[in-house]
């Protein structure tokens, strides 16, 4: 029986090649998009889910509130881990993770001969200080070494297999044990080698130095191992709770312990236990060297995938029901020969599942190609091989089953209802119910274009907002300015480099400082002003630079003067928003006012015009500028008239940098590119929307093409009679295209308010954004109508120009 079902299904597909191709093409597009999107989503939600007892693992994070200013940090005071181990109950494992500070150059001596020159590996990343609980927490597989106490002693290190191969390429793992590594000037001994984790994880360490090394070496002060009222982001802490203990109870104990040690600022700080499942997704606590996946984006991707799958399924339903009358005799004969309604339903569902399986197999072949095309949107570490995960294979099987059943359920019910007596007595009567089916097909077609119209509008709005943000007046000139960092030591070398770069012909002006006016990082400072009644403490960002900083970025002064050269006096510049925040209506009134900054009165000598110190998502807030010659260079290049001057200037700057700092890498960045990075998320969204729009239009037009072809075939004699009676080609094309335009117009009316609501909500994420304009909706609607007309016009013209004699010959 099953063999007969598949044989019949193959014959039916082969007999209707054109419609079968359109159906499978529409499904393949939808399934391909769904496969890639589901692969990305499944990958993101798989992070650290392989860890045993993952529901009992937490990261300790900080939530602070200083004078109404909220802050969040993944860093915790360095001595907290040791205190938890000795003073807290209910904690099974305490795992400190200290990131190696600065750039690490690893020196390796493979040959024990002292005269052998050690190998040098610069800028090694993913080096951490931790303890033995780290390996139990992550359930590492050991290749060599005694895992029970591999890094229990100072000056020991455990390597992953990949790093062991890098450092000791000629040695088997067991022989690497006992070898010495030197990180900058820190010498350690290899005590173990573990396999690299092959599952998605935010634990990115590759080299693990015993945390006891910090206490036993001069690093103790650098890591603030005895400081409770300060912390740095490189000091993270994970704990695993004992069974039967709740996070709420442990968190309460944790804060009591912390405040007993930090009596200075502990009351303003709350230690929070962040569940492991939240680590990969919470933007308030970004991972060092890692990345945050936004759940809202993933949910949006899943919604887009569902819509594209829905469009493919609608195509199948439309095309199958449109062909129903052509299978009427087949159904009548089957029922006459004894087929039951249930058997017919199985037959037609089997055909649908077969089409779905074929489409899915084709889609799977496309996944590697699509991943390459979507490389900008694919998470690092994800490849097509991840599809072999058991959980994903189960998801794939479920996808085939759900799409096949949903797509074929309605057509199977429709086709199985035909009455054999009516069909075989008069084939014309087999059209009974066609009006109702046509109505359903129109509804489904409208639904397709509602989705397509929404994607068109969303793409237009997101693209316009990105263009607005990139072209917006930031309040400073970001064009033709580069910035780069230098080593913080050796101030004399920086001074020499500054003069050398300023003398380069292609350089207009140079400044040293720290952050650019708008930078990826944020730096706040505590400053106050007493107005005679109360002390005001605005939340204030700070920028540093020398006296040329404002000129490099062409930041305007609306009152007062710039900071003066020299280090003899301290003076501040503030922005207009700062002036308003402390109660002055006019910038000039703030000149000469002293602010309490770091316990000292410092005068305001100038007021800067407001500029964006973050992206346009955020409002411009209070900001002050202090003269300080920092380690970051800001270089304004002269106009690039011949197209080569910038290249020549950058080459000379690079040469000057290498002379000042031999052995150091020169990494520069154009400030306008850095500002553009503020909107990477929106640009990725725009790219994905563009793809979703293109695919939804393509799928909708494929369905429309199939319906247009069917309509022309059904109305062939009607068109012939109309032509005999004097109808023109234009009139017939208008007749056949009119219904399509009506359906698209209905879709526009439905989609426009939905898109307006959704896009308004999205734009609220930006403090400065575009306004939705009528022409966006009109343009998107016109585009949908043009796509629809282009799709059906070929079939309509072919029918209109056909010789009516051919269509009426058999009458």
Structure description:
With 811 residues, the chain is α+β, with helices and mostly antiparallel strands. Helices cover 48% and strands 17% of the residues. Strands 1, 2, 3, 4, 5, 6, 7, 8, 9, 10, 11, 12 and 13 form a 13-stranded mixed β-sheet that branches. Strands 16, 17, 18, 19, 20, 21, 22, 23 and 24 form a 9-stranded mixed β-sheet that branches. The protein has a 4-stranded antiparallel β-sheet with strand order 15-25-14-26. A hairpin with a 2-residue loop joins strand 22 (594-597) and strand 23 (600-608).
Biggest β-sheet strands, sense, barrel: 13 strands, mixed
Instruction: Tell me the helix content.
Output: 40-55%
Overall 3D form: globular
- What value does the Rg take, in angstroms? 34 Å
Q: What is the domain total for the residues?
A: 4
Q: How many strand units?
A: 26
Q: What structural class should be given to the helix and strand makeup?
A: alpha+beta
Q: Please, how many helices?
A: 26
Binned strand content:
15-25%
- Please give the alpha-carbon distance between the first and last residues: 41 Å
Low-confidence sequence ranges: 427-433
Please tell me the overall pLDDT.
83
Quick overview of this protein structure:
With 811 residues, the protein is of the alpha+beta class. Helix content is 48%, strand content 17%.
What keyword list fits this structure?
811 residues, alpha+beta, 4 domains, 13-stranded mixed beta sheet, nine-stranded mixed beta sheet, 26 helices, 26 strands, transmembrane, transmembrane helix, MacB_PCD, ABC3_permease_C, cell membrane
């Amino acid at each position: 029986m099953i063999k007969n079902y598949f044989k019949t299904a193959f014959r039916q597909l082969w007999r209707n090649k054109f419609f079968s191709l359109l159906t499978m093409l529409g499904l393949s597009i939808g399934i391909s998009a769904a496969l890639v999107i589901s692969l990305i989503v499944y990958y993101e939600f798989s992070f650290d889910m392989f860890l045993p007892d993952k529901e009992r693992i937490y990261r300790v994070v900080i939530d602070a509130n200083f004078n109404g200013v909220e802050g969040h940090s993944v860093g915790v005071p360095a001595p907290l881990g040791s205190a938890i181990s000795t003073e807290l109950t209910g904690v099974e494992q305490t795992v400190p993770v200290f990131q190696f500070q600065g750039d690490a150059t690893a020196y390796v001596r493979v040959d024990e001969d002292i005269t052998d020159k050690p190998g040098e590996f610069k800028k090694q990343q993913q080096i951490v200080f931790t303890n033995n609980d780290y390996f139990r927490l992550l359930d590492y597989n050991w290749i060599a070494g005694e895992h029970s106490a591999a890094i229990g002693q100072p000056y020991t290190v455990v390597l992953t297999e990949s790093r062991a191969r890098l450092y000791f390429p000629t040695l088997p793992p067991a022989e690497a044990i006992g070898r010495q590594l030197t990180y900058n000037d820190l010498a350690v001994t290899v005590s173990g080698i573990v396999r690299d984790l092959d599952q998605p994880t935010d634990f990115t360490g590759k080299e693990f130095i015993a945390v006891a090394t910090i206490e036993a070496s001069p690093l103790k002060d650098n890591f603030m191992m005895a400081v409770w009222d300060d912390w740095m982001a490189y000091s993270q802490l994970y704990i695993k709770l004992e069974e039967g203990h709740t996070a709420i109870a442990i968190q309460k104990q944790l804060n009591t312990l912390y405040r007993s040690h930090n009596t200075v600022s502990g009351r303003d700080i709350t230690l929070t236990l962040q569940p492991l499942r939240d680590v990969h997704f919470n933007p308030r606590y970004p991972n060092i060297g890692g990345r945050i996946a936004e759940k809202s984006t993933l949910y949006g991707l899943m919604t887009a995938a569902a819509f594209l799958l829905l469009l493919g399924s609608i195509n199948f339903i439309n095309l199958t029901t449109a062909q129903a009358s052509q299978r009427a005799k087949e159904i009548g004969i089957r029922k006459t020969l004894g087929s039951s309604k249930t058997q017919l339903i199985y037959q037609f569902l089997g055909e649908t599942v077969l089409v779905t399986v074929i489409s899915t197999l084709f889609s799977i072949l496309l996944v590697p190609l699509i991943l390459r095309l979507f490389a900008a949107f694919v998470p690092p570490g994800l490849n097509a091989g991840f599809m072999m995960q058991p959980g994903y294979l189960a998801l794939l099987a479920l996808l085939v089953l759900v799409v096949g059943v949903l797509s074929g359920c309605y057509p199977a019910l429709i086709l199985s209802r035909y009455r054999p007596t009516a069909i075989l007595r008069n084939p014309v009567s087999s059209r009974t119910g066609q009006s109702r089916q046509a109505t359903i097909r129109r509804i489904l077609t409208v639904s397709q274009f509602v989705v397509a119209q929404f994607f068109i509008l969303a793409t237009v709005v997101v693209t316009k907002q990105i263009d607005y943000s990139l072209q917006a007046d930031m309040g400073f000139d970001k064009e033709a300015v580069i910035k780069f960092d230098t080593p913080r030591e050796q101030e004399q070398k920086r001074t020499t480099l500054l003069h050398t770069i300023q003398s380069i012909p292609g350089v207009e002006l140079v400044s040293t400082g720290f952050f650019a006016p708008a930078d990826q990082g944020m730096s706040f400072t505590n400053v106050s002003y007493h107005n005679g009644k109360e002390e005001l403490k605005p939340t204030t960002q700070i920028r540093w630079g020398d006296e040329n900083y404002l000129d490099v970025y062409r930041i305007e002064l609306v009152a007062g003067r710039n900071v003066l050269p020299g280090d003899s006096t301290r003076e501040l510049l503030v922005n207009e928003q700062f002036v308003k925040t402390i109660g002055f209506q006019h910038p000039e009134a703030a000149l000469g006012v002293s602010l309490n900054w770091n316990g000292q009165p410092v005068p305001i000598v100038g007021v800067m015009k407001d500029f964006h110190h973050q992206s346009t998502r955020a409002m411009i807030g209070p900001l002050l500028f202090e003269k300080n010659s920092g380690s970051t260079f800001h270089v304004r290049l002269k106009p690039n008239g011949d197209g080569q001057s910038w290249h020549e200037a950058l080459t000379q700057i690079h040469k000057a940098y290498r002379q000042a700092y031999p052995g150091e890498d020169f990494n520069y960045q154009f400030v306008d590119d850095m500002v553009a990075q503020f909107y990477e998320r929106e640009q990725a969204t725009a790219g994905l929307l563009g793809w979703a729009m293109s695919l939804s239009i393509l799928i909708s037009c494929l369905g429309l093409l199939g319906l247009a072809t069917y309509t022309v075939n059904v109305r062939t004699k009607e068109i012939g009679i109309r032509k005999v009676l004097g109808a023109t080609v234009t009139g017939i094309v208008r007749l056949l295209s009119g219904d399509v335009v009506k359906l698209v117009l209905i879709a526009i009316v439905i989609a426009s308010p939905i898109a307006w609501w959704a896009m308004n909500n999205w734009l609220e994420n930006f403090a400065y954004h575009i306004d939705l304009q009528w022409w966006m909706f009109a343009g998107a609607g016109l585009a949908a109508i043009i796509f629809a007309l282009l799709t059906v016009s070929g079939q309509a013209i072919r029918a209109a120009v056909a010789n009516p004699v051919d269509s009426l010959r058999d009458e």
